[in-house]
Amino acid sequence: MKKKLLAFVSCAALLAATITGCGGSKPAESAAAPAESGTTETTAAAAPAGASGDVKIALITMDSIDQHWVTLNEGAQKAAAELGVTVTFMSPNTKDDAQQIECVNNAVAGNYQAIIVAANGPDAISSALKEAASSGVKIVYVDSPANVDAEATFSTDNEAAGKTAGEEMIKALEAAGVTSGKIGIVNVNAATDSTVKRENGFRSAFEGKGYELMETQYGEGDAAKSQTIAENYITQGVVGIFGCNEGSTTGTGNAIKAAGDTSIIGVGFDKSDAIMNLIDDGYLLCTMAQNPDVMGEEGVKAAVKALEGEDLGGKVTDTGVSVIKAEGGAAAPASGGGSVTASKEWKIALITMDSIDQHWVTLNEGAQKTAKELGVTVTFMSPNTKDDAQQIECVNNAVAGNYEAIIVAANGPDAISSALKEAASSGVKIVYVDSPANVDAEATFSTDNEAAGKTAGEEMIKALEAAGVTSGKIGIVNVNAATDSTVKRENGFRSAFEGKGYELMETQYGEGDAAKSQTIAENYITQGVVGIFGCNEGSTTGTGNAIKAAGDTSIIGVGFDKSDAIMNLIDDGYLLCTMAQNPDVMGEEGVKAAVKALEGESLGGKVTDTGVSVLTK
Question: Secondary structure of the chain: what % helix, strand, coil (to 5)?
């Protein structure tokens, strides 16, 4: 049934594209606006067009036929339905620069307010996108960008994934006793950014090895053309062939099948029914499966945010890739975003700085949600206050309780380190959320705190200058001098004021306690400050309450984290804004990483930025 549905969608898109040059799809119809994974709440209610249903977004991919793009569109339509916006899939029926340019021009002429695009190449479409941007259209990239600034990009780390593909081929060849020989590469063209990077990564895996990588051949992503290329490679005696996209991979597998020589190692990119059948039948070793649905979903959410005036900073987000082999198509994630499965009910301890702040409560909620989905046990065993001795005791209790992994937000980089080293030496997997310690871990999921702190400073400066205040004292309320996350926020905040005419006062520490932080902020106010920055939830709440108690809304309060108390202080005018993190995402991804590590996967200690947004009144 699924194959028939995909075939129907592809044929419908092909028919529309044949008639007009660009395909189309039914607009989404819904008014729901859930919170976005990885950033902040996304809603189309305040979009420039007025009513949420008036927001028109064009989705233009390389073609409308490959299952990769069909799946990307499905993700986009899902997010569009949730947000109550219209997303029109208006892609050409084949990879053609002229047709893709025509689609962009049609979107502008049709008064679409945003374009989500997967560019055929970095240059061909650039002029059309520049004209679109100059007319006020917001540009968001998915899968493959062009050489034009955009609001955001959601794509695979193609170079890293290509290297993984090469490593998989080398492992299979060496396991078969083949340590030399020719390797063929079937790519789309020499311009498409995503597939060029995949090839570069693939080639890098072979550096210093005894194989000969042949000159790349281009099949334009067409399965039939790619099969012919792969067959030519086979006549030249290759021991392996790499296909850089769905069509290239399908063609490669079909060529090996036609040759009847399964000693040739075929490795590819993207996932489709055809590719999975070739893997299951032994004509391909594996494929690098991207997450096009995630690209589509996050692309729409980003477009809506940009239309609402949010500055996304051109951020590039890796949407992940997984290595898919035979054995029923089981996935072995190779980078963030891949699927996760648990072979048993693992016991995982979640230890945050305290168990009271709404930030940690929300983080735990995200962790419990994922634990339920994966069928593992996550125990929230955090102290009731920020205290090194209590946090160390929690770590020791987790080890004594035979927990197999610990997800931890460290109070500071050093105090808890000995306890974590002992835990790791006993085989416990360590994953950091929010704030790491000075001990190696499987992975870290946190905010880019320095960048977010700088944003907080810039927001304060803008507000002060708008009020005609170009000098004066600025107070900073931090947690302590050791907590990695809040120290970085302060450093970033201070960096925003470099070269400005303000005096940043000596930082005062309130241990994240709202009452202590209020007292500190009140002391700053008696010294005539024009602004105060709170570095975490308690510090921010205390800062806002001090400004409220003083009744002086000319003092600009800027903070960090989101809670009901903070949002009320913003709505009442006692705080300008807060930097909202995504603790639920930290919790969700922390559990997934812990399970991956327990299942034997190497995560390489990767640090993932889980995003931050500026929340104002």
Answer: 45, 20, 40
